Amino acid sequence: MSKGTTIKEALAQWETKSGEKAAEAEEIKLLCQIPSVEKMDASLSTLTNCKKLSLSTNAIEKITNLNGLKSLKILSLGRNNIKSFSGLEPVGDTLEELWISYNLIEKMKGIGVLKKLKVLFISNNLVKDWSEVQKLSELPCLVDMNMVNNPIEEKHSGDATWRPEIEKKLVKLKKLDGVPIVRQDEEEE
Question: CB 64: neighbour CB atoms within 10 A?
Answer without folding.
Answer: 16
